[in-house]
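Task card 7
Instruction: Convert sequence to structure tokens.
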Amino acid sequence: MTSSYTLSKGKIPLLISMPHNGEGIPDDIKTTMTDKALNVVDTDWYMDKLYDFADELGIYIINPKYSRFVIDLNRDPDGVNLYPGQDTTELCPTTAFDSSPLYLEGMKPDETEIQRRVALYWRPYHLAIKETLNQMQQEFGKAVLLEAHSILSHVPRFFEGQLPDFNFGTANGASCDESLMKQVESLDFSPYSSISNGRFKGGFITRHFGQPEQNIHALQLELSQRTYMNEPSNEYNINKAYAVKPKLKQLVETLASFAQEK
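Output:
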């Protein structure tokens, strides 16, 4: 099997992970899915395009090949709900964000199929993150992970009203050093709105890999797609993206500075 992700190696101890940027669906899974699923509607669209400045800054980037509809790389492999009491999609999602079915009648993945996907797609991605962060920590004494995500500004299934533009999550402060989050919160994101540990507190990757006591720091950014797309379509808006990218760049540069501090 060809690799299920791409890892671009950098020069400084900062890794950007884009676990919901993939759009591929393997042929054997396509035959079980609805047309809605094949359109990979809940993708975190254009993350690689939005963060295209990161490569020249010497930052590591990991990107999956396959859609979150194949398996959600940001979920607990044991299927534990990261937001107890709230609606959420599964490790291998069976419904889209609008609750429409992703599988044809009687074709949902069973436990054997879910474990097959964990082995083929989930585990390699997580192993690559783990190895990269460990290598950074050993070489530089520190590692920083940015989980880059985006979502429609209105998803009634998950939150009421309109989502803030920049949604940072650090597992309520457990996944990164407090001083780093203070630096992030002090940045000027205007005219965009921002919040920390609101509706989104960081998914499995942030919570699992963020170990500030080991000098491995992780935070998630859930960016509202209204900041760079023509919602509710999946069209990229060049003018909107041009306006928001400097805010993303100042965030990444702040993380890069922290990552390189002795």
